[in-house]
Specification:
Elements (H helix, E strand, L loop, with lengths): L20 H6 L9 H5 L27 E18 L2 E12 L2 E8 L7 E15 L2 E9 L6 H9 L4 H6 L5 H6 L3 E5 L5 E6 L7 E24 L3 E23 L11 E23 L5 E8 L3 E15 L6 E5 H4 L5 E8 L3 E10 L10 E11 L4 E4 L5 H17 L2 E13 L2 E10 L11 E13 L2 E16 L12 E17 L1
Antiparallel strand pairs: 1-2, 1-3, 1-22, 3-4, 4-8, 5-8, 6-7, 8-9, 9-10, 10-11, 10-12, 11-15, 12-13, 12-14, 14-17, 15-16, 16-18, 18-19, 19-20, 20-21, 21-22
């Protein structure tokens, strides 16, 4: 299959640790989240409106509000992960609390005799676009490649001498070199001619990957919309994305032969990685009613600009038996006890949504509406994500991130997402069903990835108070790379996720 490149470090001391295409995808490939009503109908909100979630999808939908409303949404996620890595099946679970749209909408009706604008609305809300809480675990036997080969590639590419190998790569190659997992290689005359790994790749190793991830992709939205004669709705939102991500990783390789004379028993790499970002973006949209029962919607989400600060700590413990015995080294020892820090920016992909809804008994009095069916088609340009430097004077980082951006373009593609949902209303009770399909962001067809949602829920509305309860089940296929190499085809774990999400929204009009 295609080889995916990972440029760990091109510039010795300058690059502390690398950004990868995976980080770009983390802020782009996620399913729709919002209020329980929105979730129950598969996440359709491109043309429907009348829900605070519209501020995060198509702000024109706020134009349907003519009263004030408070909304509060909480949920719990139940993650069941299955992995297949080189023919070996493993599983893991991770449950967590999450939330949907929370905030206020202020709708103001206007005098039809003095203005063509029937009403206007303003909202302030927060929503969790993506939840990163999970546990990823897989293991298998590999006689093709080793985690340590990325260090060999790094040292060879930089033409690093032994002094550089000892001190310039304190979060990776230097740890491996100091623990003799990587050592010098000499020719027949005893002259240094490169580096070698002590891992016996030809006989293979048992590899194990275990990572616990935390955090989320949050968005604060200030939305505004206008209602022109109950026919055309125009809206926009100013968005403040806030991202927090943490990964605690343990990766190991062990000798399956139990041979005490092959100079390798095992090694374990540990990493603590934290990433925090904040930025700005915008959404613009419209909803038009060409006929009494129909609503057509269009929205565009501008790229969000986010400034990130990452921190990393890492360590390696290696046992090379008679070669150097058991050794341990950490980045803290080589960095005065401090975590490595890197600042950079990401521009997320733009997205566009076209939508249509059919509302049975489309009348101003929503109590008399009996049902609706709605569908969204969303395009996301995943390959449009871009990294940039935080310090314009850092020319080495500029060159490095230029290469990463080329990898993003080669690695990903644009794709479509589809959402469909509906509601039946019986006086004060509502019953909802929906579904959604999210296509793969990967350009290579060998990387099987998609997300399918099946959703349903019930709602109660009476005397200005509403309570909605939803269950959404996500079937997710993806891939996880334990490491990436330049010079060999990369191996990956196939991930299948079955995720249940119970969501409840409470709200009232005032």
């Amino acid at each position: 299959m295609k080889k995916y490149l990972l440029f760990l470090s091109l510039f010795s001391c300058t690059i502390i640790f690398a950004q990868t295409p995976d980080e770009a995808l983390r802020t782009a490939w996620f399913t729709q989240n919002g209020s329980a009503r929105n979730m129950a109908t598969g996440g359709v909100m491109g043309s429907l409106g009348g829900d605070i979630t519209a501020a995060h999808v198509n702000p024109a939908g706020l134009g349907l509000f003519k009263t004030n409303e408070f909304v509060f949404t909480l949920g719990i996620g139940l993650n069941d992960n299955k992995f297949n890595y080189r023919g070996k099946d493993t599983s893991s679970t991770k449950n967590n609390f999450n939330y949907g749209t929370i905030g206020f909408v202020f709708g103001t009706p206007h005098d039809k005799n003095t203005s063509k604008w029937t009403s206007t609305a303003f909202s302030i809300s927060v929503n969790q676009l993506a939840n990163y809480n999970n546990r990823v675990q897989f293991k298998g036997f590999n006689n093709v490649s080793s985690f340590t080969e990325q260090y060999l590639e790094e040292l060879v590419r930089d033409r690093a001498d032994t002094n550089a190998a000892l001190s310039n790569y304190i979060f990776g190659s230097s740890l491996a070199f100091r623990t003799f997992l990587i050592d010098t290689s000499n020719d027949a005359a005893g002259v240094f001619n490169g580096y070698q790994s002590l891992v016996p790749i030809s006989t293979g190793t048992n590899q194990e990957y275990s990572a616990v991830t935390r955090g989320g992709y949050h968005e604060i939205a200030l939305g505004f919309a206008g209602n022109l004669e109950d026919k055309l709705y125009l809206g926009g939102s100013l968005d403040i994305p806030i991202v927090s991500y943490q990964r605690d990783l343990v990766y190991s390789e062990t000798d399956p032969t139990s041979n005490p004379n092959n100079q390798f028993q095992s090694f374990t790499y540990k990493e603590s990685f934290k990433s925090n970002g904040i930025g700005i973006g915008a959404k613009l949209g419209l909803i038009y009613k060409p006929q009494e029962f129909w609503r057509l919607g269009f929205a565009i989400h501008t790229p969000q600009w986010l400034a990130f600060t990452d921190e990393i700590r890492s360590s390696i413990t290696a046992n090379t038996e008679s070669y150097a015995g058991s050794r341990q080294e950490s980045s803290d020892n080589l960095n005065s006890g401090n975590a490595g820090e890197r600042k950079y920016n990401i521009i997320t992909p733009w997205r566009a949504i076209v939508s249509g809804s059919y509302v049975f008994r489309e009348v101003d009095d929503t109590k008399k509406q009996r049902a609706f069916i709605s569908a969204d088609i969303e395009y996301v340009n995943y390959r449009g994500a871009r990294f940039s430097v935080a310090d314009p004077k850092d020319n080495a980082a500029k060159d490095y991130l230029k290469i990463v951006n080329e990898e993003v373009k080669d690695y990903y593609k644009g794709n479509l997402n589809f959402r469909l949902g509906g509601e039946l209303k019986f006086n004060i009770w509502m019953f909802r069903l929906g579904g959604a399909f999210y296509g793969s962001p990967y350009k290579d067809s060998e990387l099987k990835a998609n997300r399918f949602l099946a959703t349903g829920g019930v709602g109660y509305r009476n005397h200005g108070i509403f309570i909605d309860l939803t269950y959404a089940h996500t079937f997710n296929k993806d891939v996880v790379f334990p490491y990436r190499l330049n010079d060999k085809p990369n191996t990956f774990a196939e991930q299948t996720v079955s995720r249940g999400n119970v969501v409840m929204t409470f709200g009232f009009k005032f």
